[in-house]
Amino acid sequence: MSTASVVVRTLEATDVPLPPEALQALRARVRGPVILPGEPGYEDSRAVWNAMIDRRPAVVLRCLGVADVVAGVLFARERGLLLCIKGGGHNIAGLATADGALMLDLSLMRGVWVEPHARVAHAQPGCLLGDVDRETQLHGLAAVLGFVSNTGIAGLTLGGGFGYLTRRFGWTSDHVLSMSVVTADGRVVEASETENPDLFWGLCGGGGNFGVVTRFTYRLFPVGPEIYGGALAWPGERAPEVLAKLREALETAPPELAIPIALRPAPPAPWIKPEAHGKPMIGLFVCHTGNVAEGERLLAPLRALGGTIGDIVQPRPYTAQQSLLDATQPKGRRYYWKSEYLAGLDPALLAGLLERRNDIPSPHSAILLFPLGDAVAKLPADHSAVGNRDARWVLNVAASWEKAAEDSTHVEWARAIWGAQRHHSTGGTYVNFLNAEEGDDRLRAALGANLERVAEIKAKWDPTNHFRTNKNVAPAQ
Predict the structure, then answer these.
(1) Which residues have C-beta within 8 Å of that of residue 423, sequence separation ≥ 6?
(2) Given this model, what pLDDT does residue 3 score?
(3) Is residue 201 within 8 Å of residue 191, measured between CB atoms?
(4) Is the distance from CB of 18 to CB of 34 less than 8 angstroms?
(5) Are 368 and 262 in contact (CB under 8 A)?
């Protein structure tokens, strides 16, 4: 344990020494370990999913409970220190970490408690999606979560959240019943539709602007434990007819069916024919959460096209479906995304994307289309901060590669694809897909007409902008 001073960053962006006695005082107030650079556990705590983000907090507090969170928030507030909050650390912009900050690492807080008769789950902020799915599926229930089981629930939920169940049930945040929050002044408050409803409204899509959520309570739905799902793929040259048939199938498909689309080089996955590896492909990731026989019927027109290079759509555990895409997004690669909301699968948009399907510069990159619509649109636009309820699809140009020397190549590719198709956007975008460089104009695109109300709630609950290492709605400091 170091006895030297540590240089920390203040809210005024100046670097000052934090003397050993201050660190000793913090350690005396918490149960979790307080870790400094060079000490065991520091590198693991500071690392986030996207290797493009390489920031070094000055101090890491690995919280073991709500009292540790309160102590960390107050310690930073008393000294005017920059504070960052890490849940799953999966955000594309790396919002979990900041140079010189005090990091509250919540990744050890991964408890999940299910009330099956009430169809409710309570989850701590360090949980990954897979943690919640494993516990709820014991009872044949599911929360509306995302597509990758290693994603943290906190960032997903606070940004709105979408996944395989979104067509059927709506945004993740539409089914949060309550949250427990540590505020900027160190209080622990409840936020729900009846208790601090303004704070609750802002937390449902307004990001990490208002406090540290230490418990999420989710409404659950009967889903699984078996669903009809998996993946099937064709060679890239078959993409036009596959997309035409898919658009036709989705015109009358029930909300129980979700089919994300991927245009990418075929990965060396065991379910894809070896001779197709590395060549352009179109992949469909199928999830039908209704009757299995109905799922088979709905997929039959696509299967009738024939000529697949891989087909693993079958009855499977819902937990297996939720981890189907995990291998495409391992921690430690370099990632850069550009995204827009779409009103539909416009033929001109699809034609433009198909023109570029053969020039993807990385074996890991993809042009992705995720379905929304249906239940999302059933609530009014101002139901919560998340907004964008007119969106039917998400376009995500997802660059992924290994070497820092290649950054410009892959970033420029993603920007070019996005820029050429941006005119098809609804004008909105998903706040959780905003990368580190995107500023106020893109934040407005994400929150739309709700931005002003989000800013008002921020001013009430965090008037000094204590929580600022996020897509921040407070005026520039």
Answers:
(1) none
(2) 60
(3) no
(4) no
(5) yes
Q: What is the DSSP string of 45-77?
A: HH--S-TT-----SEEEE--SHHHHHHHHHHHH
Average of per-residue pLDDT across 201-212: 95
- Whether the per-residue pLDDT at 2 is higher than 60: the answer is no
Does 42 have pLDDT greater than 60?
Answer: yes
Burial letters 396-416, b for 16+ CB under 10 A, else e: bbbbbbeeeeeeeebbebbee
Helices (H), 159-307: 166-169, 197-203, 239-250, 292-303
Q: What pLDDT digit, counting tens, does each position of 151-177 carry? A: 999 999 999 999 999 999 999 999 999
Alpha carbon 54 to its chain's center = 19
> Cα 463–381–249 angle (5° rounding)?
135
Listed in sequence order, the residues at least 6 apart from 100 whose beta carbon sits closer than 8 Å to its beta carbon are 7, 8, 9, 15, 56, 57, 58, 82
CA separation for the pair 236, 225 (Å, rounded): 33
Contacts of 38 (CB under 8 A, 6+ apart): 2
pTM, whole model, 2 decimals?
A: 0.95
Q: Set out the domains of the chain in order of their start, with CATH numbers.
A: 6-105 (3.30.43.10), 112-223+448-461 (3.30.465.10), 226-436 (3.40.462.20)
Are residues 279 and 265 in contact, defined by beta-carbon separation less than 8 angstroms? yes
pLDDT tens, position by position, 386-412: 989 999 999 999 999 999 999 999 999
Q: Classify 10 as helix, strand or coil.
A: strand
